[in-house]
Predict the 3D structure of the following.
Amino acid sequence: MSESRLSPNYRTEIVQDLADIDANDWDALLAAQAEPTPFLRHAFLQALHASGSATDETGWSPRFLALWVPDGKEPGRDRLAAAMPLYAKSHSYGEYV
């Protein structure tokens, strides 16, 4: 096995704004799941942030972990290979978390 197959050029990134990740790329990962949930769709997560429901101001600090790999089709372009939403909760004012 060649070394390039053993150690691909993965790049991880913590993204603060979900709008910085293409919605089609995000949703394509979700669609590849055996049982995709609508609660992880890009539009649903964006709605949480746009409505002010899940923001730093409400105690929910959103971040998104993205794993990128070289596209292979376009030199210098990376492809989203995996992603997940993360939320840091800074308080529990009236909430059961």
In short: The two ends are 47 Å apart (CA to CA).
